[in-house]
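Hi W.,

Here's what went into the run:
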Amino acid sequence: MLGYSLPRFLAVLVKEFIQMRRDRVTFAMMIGVPIMQLLIFGYAINSDPRHLPTYVEVGDDSPLSRAIVYGMKTSSYFDFIGQLTSPDEADQALKDGRASFVLVIPPNFERDLVRGLNPQILLAADASDPAAAGGASAAMAQIVQQAVGAVTRGPLANARPKPAPFELVIHRQFNPEGLTALNVVPGLLGVILSMTMVLITSVAIVRERERGTMEALISTPVRPAEVMLGKIIPYVLVGYVQTLVFLLASRALFSVPFLGSPLAFFLGFNLYIIVNLALGFLISTFAKSQMQAMQVSFFLLLPTILLSGFMFPFAAMPGWAQTIGTAIPATHFLRLVRKVMLKGAGVGDVVADMGAIALIMVVIVFLALRRYRQTLD
Amino acid sequence: MTAADPLSAPPSPPDASGAHPDWAISVQGMTKVYGGRRVVDDFDMQVPRGAIYGFLGPNGSGKTTTIRMMCGLLTPDAGQGSCLGFDIRKQQVQIKARVGYMTQRFSLYEDLTIRENLDFFARMYGVQQRRQRVADALATLGLSGRAHQLAGSLSGGWKQRLALAACLIHDPELLLLDEPTAGVDPKARRDFWAEIRQLAKRGVTVLVSTHYMDEAVQCDYIAYIAYGRKLIAGRAGQIPQMIGLHTWRVTAPNLDQLEAELSQNPAVEQVARFGAVLHVSGRQEAALKQLAQAQQGQPGQRWSYKETELEEAFIYLMASGTDNFAQEADPGATAKPPAVPPRRQDQADPPPSAPRGAG
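Here's what came out:
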């Protein structure tokens, strides 16, 4: 009677399942939110944008100029939407956002090239959004090089650009086409689990206090661990369902491969679920109302999205941001999932990531148990 | 007083440790501080086993906090005591297993059915033959037919009965009821009290906090608490004598005017109106008698001496506010109530710390 009791734990568990089943809206959200996020992030987000609106201001009607323009078009980075006649017009088009790029080929470009005068081509980009301008700008040099190379034959051969004395080979491993979805979708699992697990747990526990039922609950001989486990385990199962839905959808809709060890994935993902539930539990120990619990959960979601390497490359962040990022469980889970799904990692390859998650988990569980009081004060 | 008196002999005082076989609850010097405010201040209480103990006081006087400390939900900042022979500081789990605590607010799960709620609490207390026990509780409640209804859909009176059934599911030795009948209609309240008396007869100790005078008179013992301090405690029938009030019943043609006049009289400490009569109370017996004789001559006025009852006593206590009875024991209390005329020091007799027998 005085020790821990399995029947009491089961009682809390059963109660929690019944309440979850009765709360249809939350239940629908638990499954609906991951699917919605998967669709939005998977389909709407592209860090390598193509088909950017481009104007041309061509003063040189020559085969070479046409070859450059054609090359740009086939690269799929640029969509030509019209001709401009003056630099003022070009400025205006970039300013009001009609165009992302304006290509300026000066008069007598081909002639000057042949004469060896080293003429310039201008690609003016709207770089207020660096991500939008970056990919296309980087591809431009290659496009022009190829166009010039293709046209400078026969009598023009002396204008042909000399090949570099070495060859640079770039091998894009794990995602050769550079598809954003392959990066975002596995990472998204971390964000979805973090969001729903933390939110649902903290709200479920705070609700108990807000409705006054916690008082009746803790006036029984129940132990903190029994309440904690009994309330958390149903949501572990919710996490399983979410992950299953997620994996199926990412395979079916985005053809995201799963190359690595299922065991590595399974272990890491269980750790990650537990750490998030513990975090939700910790939030519930100081949130006064369901509203507060929700706000804190959403507040914590921001660093999870921004500093974990989900949206932006982790290595690009300054040291302090990386330090914060390292303390976020999602950072390690993201790495783990990407390694396993895209890089074919096995259990041995992700031990460090699991260790980091486990460490964070120990800290959070310790804090949560310390904060959770069996008494009301 | 019709309530059963379970204790034929007066209980002997507690031993040094505070635990005593005759006491269901025995606490000394219990104090709880929230944000620098002493919500419960140096509180002593002895509840005899098998008694119905009424716990009275205005809102915010610390009744709920005191009850929570007694059943192990809150840890006192100072003081010690025992509940059912267990230390309220160290043996909270043992206390919880033997106590039924009915919270002020409905605290069962509104999104569980009636049966699920009872079943849940039966599981939490590890009740033997759970299904049978739950079925019996449902039958006793008369809710067998509605066992699958959500608890949230019940009316106030039914919720309260269900909450009581849930706290009784493990046959507790001590029942702590925190304003159990707030917002419940008079019929349901009467039924509720009939059940409480049944339980007391079976030997369950009941500590009940209430605002209602008609409930206070059903208790064997009463403690009155205000601003976290105990003002008085004792057998219900002795409370009026302990305060030392004398009361005259007055009828007159113009009660409003008379009430205003009498309030100004130094011999009158309290004028309470009960329908068409005034109950005029004061602790100076002779002065009050003099006043009565003088007023008898007035046309239409009729004065008759009556025994002071709990009603007058509690109105007096409520008006006293922070004016604590135990002035000698608590020199720290300085606040004086505006409504009550100053009292002479020698008249203030300290309340007994423990309820005493009739002898």
